[in-house]
Design a protein that fits this description.
Length: about 200
């Protein structure tokens, strides 16, 4: 457990020599990956199904709390600035103020919370990965539902649930299973690289 606490994130394991330039370079790479994953989607209305959440949690596991939250903030600002990194190559402040805005804000908060757990030593076993991602998805769902309710104040709570949670449960469960399969191997690869 000692080496896991010393090297709290995948980023610290994979990259021994870091500086501000290296940090921002890999954050920029992560933003580009998030933008790409956002385009892998099933175009449901008013909220599409995308691969964004998998990228969000990979970012949290890789960078930890502050760097992952900053990465998501940069992603959001890039989208607001007009670069089509949101789902369907959309961009602009209207996306944040629209039906998907709550989810996008939830990405940043979930990344910070999950990243904080990673720094505390969680997320190394399949069970712990499952619990971390379950919590992260809960945060995204909660803020996403708030955003939908703001966008559609006259709709019933059940309708908001039908739009905002039910279509995503199976896909998000499969993403969690994928993370449970992949992330332990990433930890082991980082530890081997660091010890070599």
């Amino acid at each position: 457990m000692e080496h896991k606490l010393k090297y709290k994130t995948m980023y610290e394991l994979f990259f021994r020599h870091k500086n501000l330039f290296v940090d921002f370079f890999y954050m920029a790479v992560a933003v580009a990956i998030l933008g790409g994953l956002s385009q892998i989607r099933i175009p449901l209305w008013p909220v599409p199904i995308t691969m964004q959440t998998f990228g969000i949690f990979l970012t949290a596991f890789f960078f930890g709390s502050r760097k992952s939250a900053l990465t998501i903030l940069i992603y959001i600002l890039v989208g607001i600035a007009g670069i089509g990194v949101f789902a369907g190559r959309s961009s602009g402040i209207d996306v944040i103020l629209g039906s998907t805005g709550g989810y996008i804000i939830g990405f940043m908060i979930a990344a910070y919370v999950v990243g904080h757990l990673i720094e505390k030593g969680y997320g190394r076993t399949k069970k712990s990965i499952f619990n971390c991602l379950l919590l992260g998805n809960g945060i995204i769902y909660a803020l996403g539902l708030v955003g939908l309710w703001v966008a559609f104040p006259n709709e019933s709570f059940m309708q908001i649930l039908k739009w905002g949670i039910f279509p995503f449960l199976i896909g998000d469960f499969l993403k969690i299973l994928g993370a449970m399969a992949l992330f332990p191997h990433l930890w082991k690869a980082g530890e081997r690289m660091h010890s070599s």
